[in-house]
Amino acid sequence: MTLANSPRHEILMPVKGWFIMLSLIVALLLNLVPLTGTARTLQPDFVALVMLYWYVNEPQRVGISMAFWMGLLMDLSNASTFGQHALGYSVMAFMALVFNRRVGIFDGYKQAPQIGLVLLSGQIVTLLAALFAGSPFPGWNFFLGSIVGMLLWPLLSAILRAPQKLWSASDAR
Amino acid sequence: MIEISPRFFRHSPNLLARTAFFVILSLLLMALDSRFKYLGGVREIFSVIVYPLQKLAQVPMSMYDAASELFQHSEIAEENVHLKQQHLVDKGQLLRLRALEAENTQLRKLLNATQRIKNKATVAEILRVPHDPFNRKVLLDKGSMSGIEAGQAVVDDIGVVGQVTRNYPLASEVTLLTDRDHSVPVQVVRNGLRSIISGTGREGVLELRYMAINTDIQEGDVLVTSGIDGVYPPGLPVAVVSQIDRNPNYIFARITCMPVSGVNQNRQLLILSTPAPRAGTPAEATKMKSRQEARRQ
């Protein structure tokens, strides 16, 4: 793969602020869909995925505070201890910002395992915080959400990139 | 000399510092929330932001419900016949119950006992079952605007589900029986033995702690609320004893129970209004108090 082919080196219009906001709201909505049974165990954390997309692809536009605030919103809608998700998301944001140049070299499919690793470490941080607070271990399928999230990554990045491509195309004409 | 770092590297040097700031802030919030419960107001503001999203996320579910109702006419007819039969059976039992209730009030009057207060109840729908394995809670769609207060008991048609632990303007948070931090005073129906049942944090598992090995309790015993706490009205089914492990090496028996209510099956729950009044202060104590006050004056 040459550098010129990689998605990162396509010349795209800069992303619009409202689009980032909208994507995060939709992700939160997807996280809030009431699911039961197996579907619920497999439900990935869409907010984390969308945030990671922006941290990897637009590191100049989004700061760590975004992860913190989204984490607080997730804590509230999950009725969990305030700060639990905020902690996990902040750590994920840090990792994504540190690795964003490395991850950016690859295309969607090759990015997926690295994103999976970031998601997993975020979950481990959340788990440790909860264990220290005295919660029992929730079982191994706690981590299944991250694996599903990893598999969804290529699709998700294609979806999030599409509007930007459209804007660039209409601008070029 | 002025050093100008290129835009490319602009945010790198203090990234670690900023992350540390937010990590410490998160840890601080966790401590404040779990140990000191200071953050009620903040939570309320956030809940108002999240509420419309939660409602919106429910739309596909309710649309599915409406659609499936359209196709279920034959099933409904069948169910109707079945329900009519059930109704007849229930009616007979209800008549007996009324007779018993009347007799009971009569006897209580005779005994000059306090009459049991009928609890008012509000029906609420489950707004969301959180995707968080660390706590057993659900959110209901009625809040302080419908008169829901923290501390009220929540039941379904079979038994106790939990207790309202936080109320927001439009929603309320219910801690389920199975939550690690939740306990209910109960009584064994068979012999009236009183104890406290606690959640374990695992789904469908409750525990009777600190019961001696030789306690008279058997598998299959039904546990009902004893009403001593003044939160749950007495006599509501809570759990069935599923397993008893009497190991003579330990002081206490390990008694595992299964909750009777089905939180995972129901969409509607009943929030019982403010509990029955607490037992009044004994006459002696009030007399003493008034005497002391009189002396002070």
Describe the structure.
The complex is a heterodimer of chains A (173) and B (297). With 173 residues, chain A is an all-alpha fold. Chain A contains 7 helices and no strands. Chain A is globular. Chain A starts with 16 loop residues before the first helix and ends with a helix. Residues 1-6 of chain A have low confidence and may be disordered. Chain B has helices spanning 15-36, 40-70, 73-111, 283-296; strands at 121-128, 137-140, 153-155, 160-167, 172-176, 183-188, 194-199, 206-212, 222-225, 237-245, 252-259, 268-272. The termini of chain B are far apart. Chain B is built from 4 helices and 12 strands. In chain B, the strands form 2 sheets. In chain B, strands 1-2-5-4-3-12 form a 6-stranded antiparallel barrel. In chain B, strands 6-7-8-11-10-9 form a 6-stranded antiparallel β-barrel. In chain B, a hairpin with a 4-residue loop joins β3 and β4 (160-167). Chain B is of the alpha+beta class and 297 residues long. At the A-B interface, α1, α4 and α5 of A face α1, α2 and β2 of B.
Helix-strand sequence of chain A:
HHHHHHH
| Most residues in contact: chain pair | A-B, 48 and 50 residues
Report the major sheet of chain A: none
The count of strands of chain B amounts to: 12
> What Rg of chain B do the Cα atoms give?
26 Å
Query: Count of helices of chain A?
Result: 7
N- and C-termini, Cα separation of chain B? 79 Å
Kindly report the oligomeric state of this protein. Answer: heterodimer
Query: Number of helical runs of chain B?
Result: 4
